[in-house]
Each structure stands twice: as C-alpha cells, then as structure tokens.
Amino acid sequence: MRLLLAPLTTTSTVAAMARSCYTTAACVQRPPLHPLPGKLTVDSPPTPSPCSSSSKYKEPLLGLSRDALERILITSESLPDEIRTIFAQRKHYQQDLWRFMYRRGVESFDEMTTLRKDVRKALGAAFVVGNGTVKSSLLSKDGTRKWLMGFGKGADIETVLIPSVEGDAGTICVSSQVGCSLACSFCHTGTQKLLRNLSAGEIVSQVTHAMRSMSDFPLEPTKRRAVTNVVFMGQGEPLYNLRNVSAAIDLLTRRTGLDMAPWRVTVSTSGVVPNMEKVGRDLKVGLAVSLHAVRDELRDVLVPLNKQYPIAEVMKGCKAYLGHMPDTKHRRITFEYVMLDGINDTPTDARQLAKLLAQFPSHVNLIPFNPWEGSDYVSSKPEAIQTFRKIVADQGVPCHIRLPKGQDIMAACGQLKSSSDVKRKRSGLIAATA
C-alpha cells in the first residue's frame, strides 16, 4: 500500500489515512525523495511587495539595513535634490530616522520631530515607514491578542501576542509568508494557498506593532519590556523565506535595532534540512522543529514535506544546527508534537520519541490539537497526554504540555488563517483596541 496525498476539501480523508498509517505501518512503502509540487525552492528569492494598495507605490523604509537606508536616502530620485544633499551631509539625520523607526517605534514621518519639516514632508511624499495596516484586532478571554494585518494586494496575515502566566509580558508569534505551501493535514494555515513571502520589513512590523500595543516604546536600557520573545511560528515556513527572515532577525537582534537577545528569538521549521544548519551558523537563534510523528509513514501524511526530508534527514539537520551554537544553557532544540487522538499518542510513540531525541539537547512541547472548521482530527484525551509526557520525561528528555491559548479567537497553534473567515463573529470574542 502506498499513500498519496490528493487535493481535499476537508481533512476527513487525511485523518483516516493517518489512522491507517498507525495500524498498517509495516505495509507502507517510502515514496522517492522529490520536491513537492508548487513548493518554493530552498533558495527562492525575496518577493517585492508594496505596503499600500494605492496607485502610487511608496517604498517602505522599515526592514532596510543601515547601508541600504543610507543609499536610498542619498540616491533616490523620489527625493528632491536638496533633501538628498541634506541626508548626505548630515549623517545624524540618517541616524535620527533609524532611531525613530526602531528605538521609538513611530508610525509616520510626522512623528520624527528632530528632522526639519521640509525633510519630513519630502519623506512622506516619497516613502512610507512600512507598518502595514491593522484590519482587525481580537482579544481572547485568556488575554491572547490576534491582529489581522494587511500589506497590500490581498497580502493579509495574522500575528498573535501570547501573554505570560503573569499577564504582564508576552511572546509575539509572527508570520513569515502569506499562506503556506506545506499543507500539513492538521494545520488550518495549510488550507490557505501560498501567495508570497513577507519582506523583512513586513515581518519586523508585526513585532513593532505588538510592542506599541504593550507600550514598549521608546526603548530604554533600564525599561522592562512587555514583548520579551519572538517566535516564527505563525503562517508560512520560515526556512523557505530565509533571506527575508534573516534580514528581519538582524534588525530584531541588532543593538541599534530592537536589541533582543538572540536566544529570545526562535525560528520554527517543518524540516527544511538544507537551511537548518544556516540558522545556527548565521543567525545564532533558537530552532524549533515541527515533528509530530516518529515514523516516516505517518509523518508523510501529517507533514507532507517529510516525503522530501524524512525524519533521519531532519535529525541530521538538527545536529548540523547544534554544531554551530555556543555551548550555553540555551543550546537545545525544541520539538513540537501535536497530540492527535488514536494517531500519534500511544505509549509506544512516546518511548520512540524519547529514544529519537536522546541524541542531543532537546525539549518537547506537547500541543493538544486545536480544532478548526473542516478538520476531523480530535485532540488526545488529557490522561493520554499526561501519560505521554511522563514517559518522555522519565527517559531524560524535558517535556511539557503547552496549554491552549486563544482558542476562542482562532489564535491557538495550528488555527491561523488569513481569510474572510477571521472576520466572522464568534462567541466570547471581545474587540480589542489595535
């Protein structure tokens, strides 16, 4: 028997296939390794994208490197000659503009009050800061916030601020693509076709918006921040947009940028093996792997990318990543494991998972399945999840259960989808101020 994924209108067939994999694993043949149809290549170039749908396109400045910002300010034909001369001769104007974007989090050039009025006016005529548009804002009863952000021409994404236990801080979960090409059968985002990559500025703007909402700006050395961590666990596969994700992370961690510690940033992947090493070698940030199964025949169904990069290859990618990470307490990999009733939640699965991950520093997050319309998957029973956790932890692999956050506003793990569906009113929703 060979399992093939075909286009589906619901997940009922896929869920049945997953259950079939559990009971008939010995009969399943491994498919050949080949690129998945319609998938972005590993080295796909960044996709230019306007932040405004107006007829006159204005280039966003948020997301540019310091060198790129300097070049555009002194060479852009969109600026009058005298304004370009000012930026060329007065380097502190360039520095002020940078500080206003990243240290003060302003949304318009009019707020850059140390710049001359004619300079602000010229900048506004030629460029935009590039923060995108907040189209909707929802607040969960548990304090989770979800924003629908637009970046022009149908490029809408969702980003989520997950509160800490105390409620006075939080982690921002950002999207890296509009839609997703991976079609993981348990994930709502997988039902949304990939439109394009997000630019570095569009990624950073999700973070700066969350920071403004939590009054983190202006950034000051002695000021305690409310947005403490960034995780690339929203819509899209970050390692299929590595160029822009890398540029965004540089701005997040740069001392003159948002100045976040690299260990407070985590990039999640479904297993794009060629780019996993680069996360450790070039970015020095955390890595999370969406594993979800310990057998290839089951993971082929849950995470179709496994047909190209099976579990053994993913483990090699993990070792390559760790080979470039400094030997500190933060040197480990987080493995995400969605708990699906009757599919991947048996004691045998738990023992195999612990054995698989014992080879390097790791941490397991067990994620009870978060339901969404059209899915036939069901979350594992609480007692099964507790048993699973204990087995893994008893084998020496740290293992925790991630409590669902934001289920009532479809903001929990695996529930994001930027479509008209997010605008529907649901019981228990509270409109939040953007």
Task: Walk me through the structure.
- The protein has 434 residues and is α/β, with parallel strands linked by helices.
- It is built from 12 helices and 15 strands.
- The chain has helices at residues 12-23, 66-75, 81-89, 91-102, 117-126, 200-213, 242-253, 273-283, 296-302, 311-322, 347-357, 382-394, and strands at residues 59-60, 127-128, 133-139, 145-150, 156-163, 170-173, 177-178, 196-197, 227-232, 265-269, 286-290, 333-339, 362-368, 399-401, 430-431.
- Strands 14-13-12-11-10-9-6-5-4-3-15 form an 11-stranded mixed sheet. Strands 1-2 form a two-stranded parallel sheet.
- The longest helix is centred in the middle third of the chain and has 14 residues, at 200-213.
- The chain is elongated and about 70 Å long.
- The termini are far apart.
- Mean pLDDT is 85; it is low at 1-11, 23-54 and 419-434.
SSE order and pairing:
Blueprint: H1 12-23, E1 59-60, H2 66-75, H3 81-89, H4 91-102, H5 117-126, E2 127-128, E3 133-139, E4 145-150, E5 156-163, E6 170-173, E7 177-178, E8 196-197, H6 200-213, E9 227-232, H7 242-253, E10 265-269, H8 273-283, E11 286-290, H9 296-302, H10 311-322, E12 333-339, H11 347-357, E13 362-368, H12 382-394, E14 399-401, E15 430-431
Parallel strand pairs: 1-2, 6-9, 9-10, 10-11, 11-12, 12-13, 13-14
Antiparallel strand pairs: 3-4, 3-15, 4-5, 5-6, 7-8
Helix pairs in contact: 1-9, 2-3, 3-4, 6-7, 7-8, 8-10, 11-12
